[in-house]
Amino acid sequence: MAAAAEPHDRDHGGAVLRHDRGHPAQADRLVARGGGWSSTAVAQAYPGLEVDGFDIDEPSIELARANAATAGVVDRVRFHNADGDGLAAHGPFDAAFACECIHDMARPVDVLAAMRQAVPYGPVVIMDEAVGERLVAPGDDVERLMCGYGIFCCLPDGLSHRPSAGTGTVMRPDTLRDYAQAAGFADLDILAVEDFGMFRFYSLTR
Q: Angle CA(142)–CA(8)–CA(158) in degrees, nearest 5?
């Protein structure tokens, strides 16, 4: 993950999956995984997979390893202290996920480019805030809430490292599309995932 991915109380997830023993390796990568909850949940949901999670904060990695051990998946979930633009060195992987973290990163394009290189053929999925697709004033309650998070948490976090894209919580689809295309992807699709809180899912296309 990018050097801007600082630890938060909520889990920011990214993972890589490796397949069942006896089958070709399949890996799912979780980027900026915070306490490791997303990596652990993926491993619990798919017992034949192995998962790699990445963060640059050692206390968060230690917490994630402890959580994986408590959940009984420590044999299939690994956590690495690694910057996002070095992820390809741990691959290749069959899928990658970045959950609620791209907008926090100082260098989101570098991280997305590393995800593209580390996952040469499989899906790269981004989960982020379901803010409005374009600015409308006055904004609804969700938009106002996300603007508040951006002002007091996510934007200062991203700006704490330089150079920084300075994205903040209100990352609209066109902003992510620009980042993805700069990272070498062709475009993005908004996935039809409903009733998942205040989040939107994107699949980056090649």
A: 75
Cβ atoms of residues 28 and 49 within 8 Å: yes
Q: Where are the beta strands (DSSP E) in 84-140?
A: 95-99, 124-129
Whether residue 14 has pLDDT greater than 70: no
What are the distances in angstroms from CA 33 to CA 40, 63, 77, 177? 10, 11, 12, 22
- pTM value is 0.83
The set of residues, in sequence order, having a beta carbon less than 8 Å from that of 110 and lying 6+ positions away, is 2, 84, 85, 183
Amino acid at 86: G
Both structure tokens of 59: 């206390």
CA 117 to CA 176: how far, in whole Å? 18
Tell me how far apart the alpha carbons of residues 181 and 98 are, in angstroms, rounded to a whole number. Answer: 17
How does pLDDT run across 157-188, given as a tens digit for each residue? Answer: 999 999 999 999 999 999 999 999 999 999 99
Q: Which of 21-25, 27-31, 33-37, 110-114: highest mean pLDDT?
A: 110-114
